[in-house]
Structures are given as structure tokens and as C-alpha cells.
From TrEMBL:
Organism, scientific name: Bordetella pseudohinzii
Top-rank taxon: Bacteria
A Pfam family: SBP_bac_3
Domain Solute-binding protein family 3/N-terminal: 33-263
Gene transcribed to yield this protein: peb1A_1
GO terms under biological process: amino acid transport
Stated name of the protein: Amino acid ABC transporter substrate-binding protein
Keywords, sorted A to Z: Signal, Transport
CDD domains assigned: PBP2_BztA
Gene3D superfamilies recorded: Periplasmic binding protein-like II
Entry-linked InterPro entries: Bact_solute-bind_prot3, SBP_3_CS, Solute-binding_3/MltF_N
Sequence similarity: Belongs to the bacterial solute-binding protein 3 family.
Length: 338
């Protein structure tokens, strides 16, 4: 009796705990859409196309969460946020998840009431300069004016690097993306500094003559970019974290949007678990057993999303580099779904 009572109590407290933690997932399910915070328009990662459809590596992550929760990658809403606005929007509940080129740092992960749910792009901060300046290395930037966007990690990283390398510069810090890009294009600063992915995107999508600009060879920091959720909601953290992980793991096992139905017949136990042929992973997340199948079928695996949005199938042509799979010399290492 005593043991039975204890077990009942344990089950009750576990249920209580789970319901407290499941808040965002419940809200999202009731609303019928996941609300993702993105950039205001940063080609390759999150930007509306000519038809106004939001596309990009980060938008795909948002779609993946929608596919996992609803079995429908279309059930999402985008809230465009500039760098400065993004954390308040997540903290206040205006968005369910930040899918927006945000660097994971110790401070952001601890002090802001938010926490990262994985890494979907390993990046580093760099410099973009007009070729006509004749600059070949960042070490030659002494005395330069450098454009940066307000509210980015890039401001502090640049200050640290400049101090360490005895480079003096004049920061031109502007709040909105278009204005800071326009300031650079108009020559109001000599240099633009942000994540290398951002520089590639700006060069190709925002500057009239991309060939007149060059990205300098120095990468001055680690910028691991990933989705963020609010602290204290582990069930939702898991939904986002494992949606991303499923995309990465699907690539590792060669499961693509094109072959996912064929792969569902695979004998490989890992693939059978990912695709829900062997049940369990879905129930563990409070989702349908087809959660990952739906992500892969409708959004694709990580490699497909990478190539289409920022890689060889896109104007950006960013190499996989650090974002290749762990067994291909990169850092993408999915946590196993088992
Ligand atoms: N990874 C850096 C920089 C991210 C960032 O906000 N970059 C700017 C410059 S590329 C951006 O995405 N702006 C787009 C916008 O504000 O809509 C961070 O997390 O602070």
C-alpha cells in the first residue's frame, strides 16, 4: 500500500511537473500555429521572397517545428525583429521561439531568462570592405570607420579584438539592418563587420555590385548561431532542440525529403526510430510519432535546407565548412534519437 501510494504520488508530481513545463507547447497547439521571431529580412537565413513567402535556413527551422507539432510545415507565423528587439520579444511571449541568427553566449544563455536549443549554423565574425580601399587584412584597419548593427554581439567582439590587436577604429552603430547596410553602401563607413554569413548575404543581396567588395580573411570570433526559447519550459525546449536534431540526424543517415517514404521501409533501427516506424520518440515529446517524418518530408534534412538556402543551390554559395556533418570534417553532430 505504502509503495502504491508513493508511486501514485510520484506519478502525480511528474504529471504536475510536466503540465507546468508543457506551457508553450499547449499554447502553440491551441493557437494552431507556432510564432517564430526572425530577422527583418536577411537573405539565406530569414527573408521574404519576391512573392512575400518567408524563406531561409532559420525559417526552415521554424517550419520544422510546425511540422513536428502539427504535421503541417505551413502552420507558422513570422514576427520580424531587429537585433535589438529580439530578446524582449522572446521574454515577453510575443514569439514562441527565436529562429534568428543569434549567437549563443554564456550571458544570453543565463542572464536573460532564455536558453538556446541547439546550433544550426557555426559562424564567426568578419569584415567586408570595398575593393577600392585596397585593404588585404583586418590588421590594416587602423583608423577605419566600421559599421555595425545595434544590439549585436558584434559590437563587443570587435572592441575586444581591436584592443588586443592595437587597432583603433570609429564605430558607426545603427539600429536597423537596412539603414546600416545603406550607410555602408553610401560610404559612410569603410568597413561592415558582422557574422561571415551576414557579410556573404549583404554582399550578394544588398549591394548593387557585389564584385566591388571583398570579405577579409580574418575571422575574429566564434559565433555559434542557434534557436532560443524561454527558460523553465523544458518540454518546449525539447520540441525545438529535437526538431533541429532530427534534421541533422536525417542527413547523417541519408534520409531526404525525396526518399523518406522509401527509407521508412529500412531495416536500420536508427532510421526506424527517427521516422516513427518504431514508436516512442514522438510520445516522449508529446508529439505524433510522425513528427520527424513530417519534418523531413515537408522541410527536408539539414543538408537539403543548407544547400537550398545558403549553400550551392543559393546565391550565397557558402561552403559547408564547420557546418558539415561530424563524419565529414564538420561540427554537425546530431544527438541520437533513441
Ligand atoms: N550573431 C550576432 C549578430 C546577429 C545579427 O543580428 N546580425 C544582424 C546583421 S547581419 C542582423 O541579422 N540583422 C537583421 C535585422 O536586424 O533584421 C548576434 O547574435 O548578435
Amino acid at each position: 500500500m505504502k509503495i502504491a501510494a508513493l508511486a501514485a504520488f510520484a506519478a502525480l508530481s511528474l504529471a504536475g511537473l510536466q503540465s507546468a513545463q508543457a506551457a508553450t507547447l499547449d499554447v502553440v497547439k491551441k493557437r494552431g500555429a507556432v510564432v517564430c521571431g526572425t530577422t527583418t529580412g536577411f537573405a539565406g537565413f530569414s527573408a521574404p521572397d519576391a512573392q512575400g513567402v518567408w524563406r531561409g535556413l532559420d525559417v526552415d527551422l521554424c517550419r520544422a517545428v510546425a511540422a513536428a507539432v502539427f504535421g503541417d510545415a505551413g502552420k507558422f507565423k513570422i514576427v520580424p525583429l531587429n537585433s535589438q528587439q529580439r530578446f524582449t520579444a522572446l521574454q515577453s511571449g510575443e514569439v514562441d521561439v527565436l529562429t534568428r541568427n543569434t549567437t549563443v553566449t554564456q550571458q544570453r544563455d543565463t542572464a536573460l531568462g532564455i536558453i538556446h536549443a541547439g546550433i544550426n549554423f557555426y559562424d564567426g565574425q568578419g569584415f567586408l570592405v570595398p575593393k577600392k580601399l585596397g585593404v588585404k587584412s583586418a590588421k590594416e584597419l587602423n583608423g577605419a570607420t566600421i559599421c555595425l548593427q545595434t544590439g549585436t554581439s558584434n559590437e563587443n567582439t570587435l572592441a575586444d579584438w581591436a584592443r588586443a590587436n592595437k587597432v583603433s577604429y570609429k564605430p558607426v552603430v545603427i539600429e536597423t539592418f537596412n539603414e546600416v547596410v545603406n550607410a555602408f553602401a553610401a560610404g559612410r563607413c569603410d568597413v561592415f563587420s558582422t557574422d561571415a554569413s551576414g557579410l556573404a548575404s549583404i554582399r550578394i543581396s544588398k549591394l548593387e555590385k557585389p564584385d566591388d567588395y571583398v570579405v577579409l580573411p580574418e575571422i575574429i570570433s566564434k559565433e555559434p548561431l542557434g534557436p532560443f526559447v524561454r527558460q523553465g519550459d523544458d518540454a518546449w525546449l525539447n520540441v525545438v532542440r529535437w526538431s533541429l536534431s532530427a534534421m541533422i540526424e536525417a542527413e547523417e543517415y541519408g534520409v531526404t525529403s525525396a526518399n523518406v517514404d522509401e527509407q521508412a521501409k529500412s531495416e536500420n533501427p536508427n532510421i526506424r526510430r527517427i521516422l516513427g516506424v518504431v514508436p516512442g520518440a514522438g510520445a516522449n515529446l508529446g508529439l505524433d510519432e510522425k513528427w520527424a517524418y513530417n519534418i523531413i518530408k515537408q522541410v527536408g534534412n539539414y543538408g537539403e535546407s543548407f544547400e537550398r538556402n545558403v549553400g550551392q543551390g543559393s546565391p550565397l554559395k557558402i561552403a559547408r565548412g564547420l557546418n558539415a556533418q561530424w563524419n565529414q570534417g564538420g561540427l554537425m553532430y546530431a544527438l541520437p534519437i533513441r
